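Help wanted!
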Amino acid sequence: MWKWIQAFASPKNFYQISQKIIPWLLIPFIVLALVGLYWGLIVAPIDYQQGESYRIMFIHVPAAWMSMFIYLVLAISGGIGLIWKIKLAYVVARVSAPIGAAFTFLALVTGAVWGKPMWGAWWVWDARLTSELILLFLYLAYMSLNNAFDNPKTASKASSVLAIVGLVNLPIIHYSVKWWNTLHQGASVSINKVAIQDANMLIALLLMSMAFKFLYGTLMLMRVRDEVLVTEQNSSWVKKIVMEYK
Amino acid sequence: MTLAEYFSFLPYGKYAFYIWFSYLTTLIVIAILFIRTRSIHKNVIKQLRIKYLREK
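Answered by r_m:
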């Protein structure tokens, strides 16, 4: 297993494998997103409490899940980079940050747009909303720190430490609706409880959630592939790829 | 007339503005992510090609 990981983590192998994997992530993303949109916007019934407005959930909830999932990937990759000195782990962390920030932004914007008709306000300083906003600031701080040093190694180490420290925010986001008396509703889906009773609503939510996972995989691999080309630019295999590129 | 009322002719009635605004924002963000990723890729290839041609 360790040998396989090491082989996969070698830049040349990673580049070649990622080239093959990218279409197999992109196509499921497109298919799942289209089916998920159809299910969420047409098949899923009207909510008895929130009416049609709840359909924002099919973007808002998966985007919020992705914002936390990508941060976890970022912090774990940073940790792997710090402990095992695997350069590729730093690269994964670095390219994940803007994608994670984009999902966090989406979660906040769609949450605000959902909040207006339901709560009567675009924004409230609720524990869930505030901790999600802090997550966006953590992403921005990570990216700023990564660009603040001339030495890329120092930048990767410093930003990884920040990412690991920022992990404390994830349980705060998750449990904020339990720990504090918040305006934000409870978890839609958790390990031992599914708050959504209608099967069509749940299917639409899971389809969009899977679509976003594939989207992240596609974008992450595409960006890592470019980082690999830059870091390995003195290798003959990179030169061959670049000169043969059409 | 509020924006929500103005866009109420779209599907989902009085919530149309909120729903379509959310979905449109998501589409734009995803499009930006793809366009940015593609432009980074093209830029990397271009810069490396210039470098290799200079070395020749």
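OP: Thanks! One thing I noticed: DSSP finds two helices and no strands in chain B.
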